[in-house]
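Hey there, shall we discuss this one?
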Amino acid sequence: MSERTGEEQSGAAPGTVPGTAGGTDGTDGVEVVDHPLGVDHGRYELREQGEVVGVASYAVVPAGGADGRERVVFFHTEVRPDHEGRGLAARLASTALDATVASGRSVVALCPYVKAYLRRHPEPYAGHVVEPTPTDLEAADRAAHAAG
């Protein structure tokens, strides 16, 4: 994985997204945790046995668009190569998207993986996905640079 993993901490308390620890029987040791890295960006971390093995990075854009909702701009998703082929990227994407929708925010998909996931699984997300604006692109660029 080319991105730094969870060793760097921002001081923000990461939180496990409800209903994501474990697999269908809760025993596979995989969880997805929302790790805010600031008020305007963060990442969902895919952890196996406590080790970060994947991330879905995002920027947060304040409400003000046509839909009047805060926007979560997903701009980068990856899973370590040694963990590919197990459906973990789909679990990461679905958990991040589910949490975004549950929070009442809109989804902006810049990341190719998230875009492809949304094409394959339009429901229940279709009513929450919005087209990117220049503000969304700027926020994603700032967040990507801040993440290093």
